[in-house]
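Re: that backbone. Tokens:
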């Protein structure tokens, strides 16, 4: 068996292992990644603080985060039933939701898409 043939014979199982390893890493990354950060936005408090101050959280999102979202995404924030209800159009919901959950716990919010 020549040098090239031995290399190809070795590469087949190693290539499969490499492919499976990369597949697992990418899958884990995709399912555990949080939303994208909003350029120029820094939250003044963490989720623990805002869990007891939902009115302040809704105001913070409306005043400081919403104007910095890309593509001019629009949303409204209201406190109802112990959560901040985020209402946005179908087109804007993806951007708004991913931006919010990057900084705050998803449990604080209820996301409602308008048809």
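Recovered sequence:
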């Amino acid at each position: 068996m020549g040098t090239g043939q031995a290399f190809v014979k070795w590469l087949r199982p190693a290539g499969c292992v490499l492919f499976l390893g990369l597949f697992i890493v990418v899958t884990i990354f995709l399912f555990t990644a949080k939303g994208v950060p909003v350029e120029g936005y820094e939250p003044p408090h963490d989720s623990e603080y805002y869990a007891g101050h939902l009115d302040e959280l809704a105001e913070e999102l409306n005043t400081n985060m919403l104007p910095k979202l890309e593509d001019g995404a629009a949303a409204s924030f209201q406190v109802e039933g112990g959560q901040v209800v985020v209402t946005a159009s179908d087109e804007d919901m993806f951007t708004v939701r991913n931006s919010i959950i990057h900084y705050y716990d998803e449990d604080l919010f209820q996301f409602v898409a308008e048809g």
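The chain has four helices and three strands. The chain has a mean pLDDT of 88.
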